[in-house]
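Lecture 7 notes: from sequence to structure.
We start with the chain below.
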Amino acid sequence: MGTIRNQYKQQDVFDFEKLDVYQEVRAVNLKVLKRLFSLKSADPYVQDQFKRASMSALLNLAEGTGRMAGPDKKNYYIQARSSVFECVAILQIMYDMEFVDKEFYEDLYAGFDKVSRMLLGMIRSFE
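Predicted structure tokens for the same chain:
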């Protein structure tokens, strides 16, 4: 399948598109959304919250990249990381309720872990 970045022929015009962390969040987000749209039995509230948290991580990262002041950028990156934590908690609930299988859980968990570490590095760069 390749990475999302390689699937599209585009120039990276916006700064956030050039970030490896953005591409990672985007890839994890795509997995979340595809799974959520295919689930019929999961609780709609849990699905909606997962979608919102996943999108929030992606959108806060993008928006923060567009901010000019360092403290402002940092706050958006903190929000993006907080949304990643929310995603992990929801993923664990969905796994416990058997809405997702172990393979999917482990794949997403690893993706969220990687993204969280990358965002933490960005946040710490402002200290």
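Points to note: Residues 70-96 form the longest helix (27 residues). Residues 17-124 form a domain with the de novo design (two linked rop proteins) fold (CATH 1.20.1440.60).
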